Recover the amino acids of this structure.
């Protein structure tokens, strides 16, 4: 049984929709947890005026009854409150008003290539769907996937580790308890001094009309060994996770565990030696692999880091070309954020949660959540896995 997630909708359209297929029946879904993740996606120092307009909430229109999944597709909707200000420009149906087209693509955005690929004249036909506003639907679906993982003993968290030149001290000893106050930081950084320096960096570069990128880390705890497979490139979990993270708007690089760092190390310092005792079973002193070996989870915490480029919409626009006249012009200036790295971490959580939930569904099947849990326990007993 595979899990599937599909989103629909545009940034300033009526709303966003997520269809999540493949969850077992009988799974308890916490409505407040869904809305809480949507609110967390709107957090972060450096957000723009759009977040003052939207107050994202999930509306369930199918697949859940009285707080439990029914086994069929789950339909989730997130309304765009700002649609009231865009109703003519983004109406699904023809309008009488004469609306100007947008012909000024932004460097670093989908604008130009999207118009070329789909034979469009108006850049807005591309940018509305390419916008990171789409990730609100992903977070809604990912929040449901987290409910399945939680029932199976898995927790997923994220935190910001870098904004432009400011880096937080590396922490290899993080536990679920360390993440309890992460959202209290204005940039979702676990280190108070780095958090303050990141805020100062955002202020400085925002005054210079710049946008900012950075990096975040996602960690998952409680994963059973053996999710994914070595037998096919299509089933390797690291490949699936990499694609999921790189599908997030503005993400340009991803690494598992020590990632690129191990490329500069000799083999004796690059791998995680294996130990065994009767109480713990198999265990490792280090986690350089980030919890994935041979395309499969190995029982250690999953560690994924992602790098985000600065946003391509700038208050002082970059040089571009008018696609109608081919004359030099400044790129479109749309309402924008200066930094969304904290929010991107929450989206990263959602995508990791979806991939992991899909891996559990593929491995353990089950029409009802009790069947899934029973299959998981039987597997854990067979391999002698101890948390």
């Amino acid at each position: 049984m595979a899990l599937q997630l599909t989103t629909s909708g545009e940034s300033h359209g009526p709303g966003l929709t997520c269809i999540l297929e493949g969850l077992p029946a009988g799974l308890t879904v916490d409505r407040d947890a869904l809305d809480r993740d949507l609110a967390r996606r709107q957090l972060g120092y450096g957000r723009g005026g759009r977040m003052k307009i939207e107050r994202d909430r999930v509306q369930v229109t199918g697949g859940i009854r009285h707080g439990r999944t029914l086994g069929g597709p789950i339909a989730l909707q997130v309304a765009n409150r700002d649609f009231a200000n865009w109703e003519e420009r983004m109406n699904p149906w023809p309008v009488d008003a004469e609306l100007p087209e947008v012909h000024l693509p932004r460097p670093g955005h989908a604008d130009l290539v999207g118009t070329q690929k789909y034979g469009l004249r108006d850049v807005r036909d591309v940018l509305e769907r390419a916008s990171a506003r789409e990730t609100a639907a992903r977070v809604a679906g990912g929040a449901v996937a987290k409910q399945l993982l939680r029932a199976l003993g898995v927790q997923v968290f994220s935190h910001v580790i870098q904004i432009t030149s400011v880096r937080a001290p590396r922490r290899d000893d993080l536990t679920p308890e360390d993440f309890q106050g992460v959202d209290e930081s204005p940039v979702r950084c676990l280190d108070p001094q780095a958090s303050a320096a990141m805020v100062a960096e955002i202020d400085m570069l925002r005054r210079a009309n710049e946008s900012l990128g950075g990096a975040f880390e996602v960690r998952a705890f409680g994963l059973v060994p053996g999710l994914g497979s070595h037998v096919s490139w299509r089933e390797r979990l690291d490949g699936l996770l990499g694609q999921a993270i790189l599908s997030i708007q503005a993400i340009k690089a991803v690494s598992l565990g020590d990632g690129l760092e191990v490329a500069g190390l000799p083999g004796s310092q690059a791998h995680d030696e294996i130990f065994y005792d009767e109480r713990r079973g198999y265990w490792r002193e280090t986690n350089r692999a980030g919890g994935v070996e041979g395309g499969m989870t190995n029982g250690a915490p999953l560690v994924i880091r992602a790098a985000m480029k600065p946003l391509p919409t700038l208050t002082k626009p970059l040089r571009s070309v008018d696609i109608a006249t081919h004359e030099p012009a400044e790129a479109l200036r749309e309402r924008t954020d200066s930094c969304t790295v904290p929010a991107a971490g929450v989206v990263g959580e959602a995508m990791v949660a979806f991939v992991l939930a899909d891996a559990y569904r593929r491995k353990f099947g089950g029409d009802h959540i009790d069947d899934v849990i029973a299959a998981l326990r039987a597997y854990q007993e067979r391999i002698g896995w101890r948390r």
